[in-house]
C-alpha cells in the first residue's frame, strides 16, 4: 500500500512565506548610520543620514513631526513635508556636506603650507 506524504508542515524547515517575509524585513533595514523616514502625504520612504537630523532644516521638520504626530510615534518616523521639498533639502545637505569636506581638506593643506612657509621664514633669519 502506497502512503501519501503528510500534509502537516515540518516546523523545523522555514516555510516559503516566512522566508520571503524575513528577506523583506532585512531589505528594509537602512544602512548603518541612516534613519528611515516616511515623508509627505504619500509617505514615501527615505533613508536619511543620522547626522543630517541635527541640522537646522531637519530639526524644524522634526519639530513639525512632533507637533503633528506626537513624540510617541511607532515605527518609521513620519515627516509632514512635501516630497519635492524634502528631496531639495537632502540635495542641499549633500552639497553642504561635500563643501565641508572640501573646506576641511583645503584647511589641512593651507595649514601645512602655512607651517612650511613659517619654517622656511624662520630658517632664513
TrEMBL record:
GO biological process, one term: response to auxin
Pfam family, one: Auxin_inducible
Bias kind Basic residues: ranges: 23-32
Protein family according to the UniProt entry: Belongs to the ARG7 family.
Region (Disordered) location: 1-36
Organism: Zingiber officinale (Ginger)
Listed name of the protein: Uncharacterized protein
InterPro entries associated with the record: SAUR_fam
Highest taxon of source: Eukaryota
Amino acid at each position: 500500500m502506497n502512503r501519501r506524504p503528510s500534509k502537516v508542515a515540518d516546523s523545523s524547515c522555514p516555510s516559503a512565506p516566512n522566508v520571503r517575509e524575513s528577506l523583506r524585513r532585512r531589505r528594509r533595514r537602512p544602512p548603518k548610520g541612516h534613519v528611515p523616514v516616511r515623508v509627505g502625504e504619500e509617505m514615501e520612504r527615505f533613508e536619511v543620514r543620522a547626522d543630517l537630523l541635527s541640522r537646522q532644516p531637519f530639526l524644524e521638520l522634526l519639530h513639525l513631526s512632533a507637533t503633528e504626530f506626537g513624540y510617541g510615534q511607532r515605527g518609521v518616523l513620519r515627516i509632514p513635508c512635501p516630497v519635492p521639498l524634502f528631496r531639495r533639502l537632502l540635495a542641499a545637505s549633500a552639497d553642504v556636506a561635500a563643501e565641508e569636506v572640501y573646506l576641511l581638506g583645503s584647511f589641512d593643506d593651507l595649514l601645512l603650507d602655512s607651517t612650511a612657509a613659517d619654517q622656511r621664514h624662520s630658517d632664513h633669519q
